[in-house]
Amino acid sequence: MVRKNYTISEAAEQVGLGPWTLRRLERQGRIPAARRDPLARARVYSEDDLTTLKAVLASLTADPACAVVAS
Q1: 3, 12, 25, 35: which could join 31 in a potential S-S bond, CB 3.0 to 4.6 Å?
Q2: Distance, CA of 39 to CA of 13 (rounded, Å)
């Protein structure tokens, strides 16, 4: 089975945030760093990455001290 990879825009849409918000949360160390396409150096997200992102974001939004603001 072929697994789909997502761009940062597609991944952001899947988790309900904007691409810049994902970049900011990654820079802050609040979400795991995305893999990079070796040729394009663009962030690449797998289905497993999206599952992880959704879980991490759910835990961040559950804690009022760690509010995530959507872009």
Answers
A1: 25
A2: 24
